[in-house]
Every structure is written in structure tokens, then in C-alpha cells.
Design brief:
With about 425 residues, the protein is an alpha/beta fold. The chain has helices at about 15-25, 60, 70-85, 95-105, 120-135, 155-160, 160-165, 185-190, 215-225, 245-250, 305-320, 320-345, 375-385, 410-425; strands at about 40, 45-50, 55, 110-115, 140-145, 175-180, 195-200, 200-205, 210, 230-235, 265-270, 280-285, 350-355, 355-360, 390, 390-395, 400. Strand 1 (about 40) and strand 2 (about 45-50) form a beta hairpin.
């Protein structure tokens, strides 16, 4: 029982070339992958099959909230799987009910639905909006340019980036894009068919751009005035990443009127399961019962196993005070990145973000990158890989730091030192 995955023949084991070949022959090539074959991890470190160690500041794109091989997650998986892995949503189970209560407690009065991914959680919110407007014939959802909402057909229609739509036209009808952080544009875009506005509290794939407090409060008032649902995609920026459970709680901290702000629907995934697939959406009272029996469902959503893991993650975040960790250490890292922007303006142009959701924008025309046609972000990320640090590109000029919530201060310092060394080299 020691080896969970059956041992491959010795010749395949730990062989970079043969694993690459398995992919080349058998895996749909829909991803642009880095030339790294990973084998195992521990905390914020990952190891590839050649034994090289990486400090992981990407955590699976904001997924591995407790790092890799977390003993707490292993324990939750083992204990729950001995009792019950899956039952149909035709029945009740305790973990799903308790997890819903934990989420409601952290946001506000409402209810939760459980899915398996971020795209699916958003699909649920789109269906909620359609149901909400159905009697009046309203169906249109406004989303922001540069947004990202997932790769399903509705997800790519909702996403405000052409690159995800290309080749998959015609787009599903019912989505239009508005410039982000522009309240006047949102007001001007509303048509008689509009039923909802969906935004990310901090745009992730779009390059780590937080919403302004005025935008959030303004959209809330606008949605109330026009009877629209205000939907927030918290898939990447949620789950304590910004130093509060949800990004709007951090953005609106200390802002007059901010403590009363709530969206009408909010999607979650990524960090919620720490690497075990789970998605969810929360819907505010009084819309919490709009999706009645028979209107929405999924086989795997909210299994006892997924919910037990998510519950364990909540308890670890609380007992280890990781909310504070993300805020304090993240804010320290941001100051360090800002210092790099001051010191090396020909290489780094801007540092932004909140807590452990940080973006470093690279300057145009870095001379050392001129020889390659790869984007500056990709070349920068590749150079950091050589230095043993993992980060995530966003668009052509931004690299993202999305570390585990339990990143340690010395690991944060190690990451900053590696980034500084590279920036200095490129200057
Ligand atoms: C990752 C992401 C999604 C899609 O989540 P999947 O689990 O990949 O379907 C949706 N919205 C945002 C903001 C994301 O970052």
C-alpha cells in the first residue's frame, strides 16, 4: 500500500525524456507547458524529476493554499475516504452542510452550491442570472475587458479577452464587455436586456488589477438602481489571498459604507480545496432559493471528500492565522517589488496587488529579451525557473506571485532575492 500509483517500469521512472514523449504521443496539446517535469513537493518547494528544487510562488495558480503535501490535507483525505468518498446529491451529508455554513459565515446571509471548478461555479452564477431575469426576458450579463471567467463555452463568452474566443465562434449570446474600473461605462452599457454585471475583485489573468473601492460601491448602487445582480468571480482572488477572505472585504476595509457591501453572487474554486478539485458559489439572500429543485445539478459537486478537505483548510487557516500571514508578508513583498520598480525602472515598470496576489509589470523592450520572440513575461519566468523560483505569467508583460498562504518569511525573502538578482542582471 506504500505506492499509490503503480510503479512504472524502471526505465520510465524519473526519465524526463520519456515523460515528455508520453505527453507528445498521448496528451492533447492544448497547453503551452514549461520544459519542467515535476515529481513531488513539500510546503512551498517543488522538485522535478531531475532532482532540481524550486521555490513555488505560483502554488498551482493560486490553488495549493497550504502548499504541497500538506499533512493536514493528507489527514483529511485519509480520514474522510475511510468513511465516505462520494454519494449522490440525492442525499444529505454532513461535510457539505458544514462547509456551506463556514462560507456563509464568512460572507453574509445566503446559501451555497458546490461544483468542481471555477468555470463551473461561474456557469452556476450565469444560470442564476438567467433565472432571475427570465420572466422579464432579461438575460444579458456585462463583464469586464481583460477579465477571465473560465474555458467553458459560457466562460469564454464571458471572458473579456479575444485570445480565449478565437477559433470557437460563434460565441454564446448574452455577454458584453465593459472597461474595468469605469463606472460611467457600466452605466452607459446597460440595455433593457441586461440582468447582471460580473467582475473579478482583483483581475488575475488580466494582469493583477484590483477594483477600486469607488467602483465596487458604485456598481452596487448601479445594480440596485437598475435591478441587476452584482456577481463577483472570486475564483482566483478569494480565499484569503488578498489578506481577507474575499477581495472586496480587503478593498473596502475602512471605506465609508464598505462594511455593508455584498455582491449578490460570488464564485469560488482554486484555493478552496488546496489542490483537491472543488468549486462553489454563494448567493445572497433574498436570491438564495431562485435555483429550486431540479434547476441545477452536478454529479460530483460537494462530495464528502472534497468538503472535508475544504473544511480542514478553513481550520488550518484559522489556527495558523494565515489570513494575517498573507496580508503582512504579502504587503512586505509588495514593498520589496516597489523598491525594485524604483531602483530598476528600465526592467520593471509597476508592482501591484494585495496580500499574496501580486503582479510585477515588466518594462517594454528589455534589451536582453530582444533576441527571442517569446513574450517578456515568459522569458522572465523561464529565467526564474533557471534560478529555482516558480512564478506565473499574466499576459505578455506581467508576472504573478500567488504563493501558498503558509509561505514562510524566509521563503518570501528567498523569492524576492532571486527576483532582484534577475532584475539586476537584466538592467
Ligand atoms: C482560474 C479561474 C477561473 C476558472 O477556473 P477553472 O477551475 O480553471 O475552471 C475562473 N475565473 C477566474 C478569475 C480564474 O482565475
Amino acid at each position: 500500500m506504500k505506492e499509490i500509483v503503480p510503479a512504472p517500469p524502471a526505465i520510465v521512472r524519473n526519465d524526463y525524456e520519456s515523460i515528455r514523449e508520453l505527453f507528445a504521443k498521448n496528451v492533447v496539446p492544448s497547453y503551452g507547458r514549461f520544459e519542467i517535469v515535476l515529481s513531488h513537493g513539500a510546503g512551498s518547494y517543488l522538485f522535478d524529476v531531475t532532482g532540481k528544487r524550486y521555490l513555488d510562488l505560483g502554488s498551482g495558480i493560486a490553488v495549493c493554499s497550504l502548499g504541497h503535501a500538506s499533512p493536514a490535507i493528507t489527514e483529511a483525505l485519509v480520514e474522510q475516504s475511510k468513511k465516505l468518498i462520494h454519494v449522490s446529491n440525492l442525499y444529505f451529508t454532513e461535510p457539505q452542510g458544514r462547509l456551506a455554513a463556514e462560507i456563509v459565515k464568512r460572507i453574509g446571509a445566503g446559501k451555497c452550491f458546490f461544483a468542481n471548478s471555477g468555470a463551473e461555479a461561474n456557469e452556476g452564477l450565469f444560470k442564476l442570472a438567467r433565472k432571475f431575469g427570465h420572466a422579464e426576458g432579461r438575460f444579458e450579463i456585462l463583464t469586464a475587458t481583460n477579465s477571465f471567467h473560465g474555458r467553458t463555452l459560457a466562460g469564454i463568452a464571458a471572458t473579456g479577452q479575444d485570445k480565449v474566443k478565437k477559433g470557437f465562434e460563434p460565441m454564446m449570446p448574452g455577454f458584453r464587455h465593459i472597461p474595468y474600473n469605469d463606472l460611467a461605462a457600466a452605466r452607459a452599457a446597460i440595455s433593457p436586456a441586461t440582468v447582471a454585471i460580473m467582475i473579478e475583485g482583483v483581475q488575475g489573468e488580466g494582469g493583477v488589477t484590483p477594483a477600486t473601492p469607488e467602483y465596487l460601491l458604485g456598481l452596487r448602487a448601479l445594480c440596485d438602481e437598475k435591478k441587476l445582480l452584482l456577481l463577483m468571480d472570486g475564483v482566483q482572488c478569494g480565499h484569503y489571498r488578498t489578506g481577507r477572505f474575499q477581495s472586496f472585504q480587503r478593498i473596502l476595509e475602512g471605506v465609508p459604507g464598505g462594511e455593508k457591501f455584498l455582491p449578490d453572487g460570488l464564485s469560488m474554486a482554486k484555493s478552496l480545496g488546496g489542490g483537491f478539485p472543488i468549486g462553489a458559489f454563494w448567493v445572497r439572500s433574498p436570491y438564495q432559493d431562485l435555483l429550486g429543485p431540479g434547476t441545477h445539478a452536478t454529479t460530483f459537486g460537494g462530495t464528502p471528500l472534497a468538503c472535508a478537505v475544504a473544511l480542514k483548510i478553513f481550520s488550518v487557516i484559522e489556527s495558523e492565522r494565515l489570513e494575517e500571514q498573507a496580508r503582512k508578508l504579502g504587503d512586505w513583498m509588495k514593498k520589496e517589488l516597489e523598491r525594485l520598480v524604483q531602483t530598476y525602472p528600465t526592467v520593471v515598470k509597476n508592482a501591484r496587488g494585495l496580500g499574496f496576489m501580486l503582479g510585477l509589470e515588466l518594462a517594454e523592450n528589455i534589451p536582453a529579451f530582444a533576441a527571442s520572440d517569446k513574450s517578456a513575461a515568459l522569458q522572465f519566468v523561464n529565467r526564474l525557473h533557471e534560478a529555482g523560483v516558480m512564478t506565473i505569467p499574466a499576459g505578455t508583460h506581467v508576472i504573478r506571485l500567488l504563493p501558498a498562504l503558509n509561505l514562510k518569511p524566509q521563503e518570501a525573502a528567498e523569492g524576492i532575492a532571486a527576483i532582484e538578482a534577475l532584475v539586476k542582471l537584466l538592467a
